[in-house]
Amino acid sequence: MIDEFLARDLSAVEEAVRKAAAAEITPRFRQLADHEVDQKSGPHDLVTDADRLAEQHLTASLTRLLPGSAVVGEEAVHADPSVYAALRGDVPVWIVDPVDGTRQFVEGDPHFCTLVALAVRGEILASWTYAPALDVLATAVRGQGAHVNGERIHSGSPEPGADLRVATAHPLYTSEEDRRYLARLDVPGVAARPCGSAGLEYLRVARGEMDALAFTWPSAWDHAAGLLLVGEAGGAQSTVDRVPFRVDRDNALPFAVGRDEATAIRVRELLRGEG
C-alpha cells in the first residue's frame, strides 16, 4: 500500500502542504494579532493560531490522502502526549510541524517552514520541507534522492582545511547538561552558531551551505523531514551512542548530522569528548 502511495500521490501531498500554508500560515505572516500568539512552556516556547490551524488542516488532508494513517503533530502531542506513541505502531504516520521556527514567524522573519514526513515502523519514507515566505520546497523520497524546487541536490563535502560550519541547539532551549556537550565544539577548526528553524538548518546541510548540525532534543516533528532530506542528499547522522537517530525509540542525545559521513563522525566524537 505504501509503495503504491509513494508512486502515485506525492504531488497530492505537496499540494496539501501548499494549501495548508496558503490558508492558515501565509495570511498571518506579519499580520498576527496579540490574541493569536500564546506561550506553551515559557516565554520562548510560542504557539500561534497559524500553528494550530495549519496542523488541523494538514491532519485532515493527509489522512484523507492515505486512509488508515495517523498523524503525530507538534500541537496534538502538546495537547495529548500519548499521541506520540503512534510512532511505535504499525500504521503509517504523518509527522507534522506546522510552523517550524515559530519564534521567527512571530518576529516577521521569513526563515520558517512547514515540515511533513511519512514514516512506517520508524522508517522515514518521504519528506516535505516548505518555506512559503522564501518560495522553497524541498522533498526527499527514500532511495530516490533529495530535491529543491524540483532540482536534485547533493550535500557534498566540506572544503579541505576550512573550519566546519556547525549549527547547534539554541541556548534558549538547552539545559546546563546540553550546554556542556555543545561547549565541546568550541575547538579550533569548528565555527559553531545557534540554529534557527531546525528544518531550514537541515536544508542548508543538504545543500552544502552548512557542514553539520548538533541537536540536543528528540522531537520527531523537528527532525524527521530533515534527516531524510540530508540522507538522500548524501549526508549522514549519528547519536553519541554511535547509532542512527530514529523517531520510534528513545535516543542518546545529543546527535550529529553532517553533509558527509566523515563530518558527522567528527562532530559526534567532539560531542563525546573524544575529538
Automatic annotation (TrEMBL):
InterPro entries: Inositol_monophosphatase-like, Inositol_monophosphatase_CS. It comes from the Bacteria. It is an enzyme of class 3 (hydrolase). Its EC number is 3.1.3.25. It catalyses: a myo-inositol phosphate + H2O = myo-inositol + phosphate. Gene3D superfamilies: 3.40.190.80, Fructose-1,6-Bisphosphatase, subunit A, domain 1. PROSITE patterns: IMP_2. Keywords: Magnesium, Metal-binding. This is inositol-phosphate phosphatase. The lineage of its organism: Bacteria, Bacillati, Actinomycetota, Actinomycetes, Kitasatosporales.
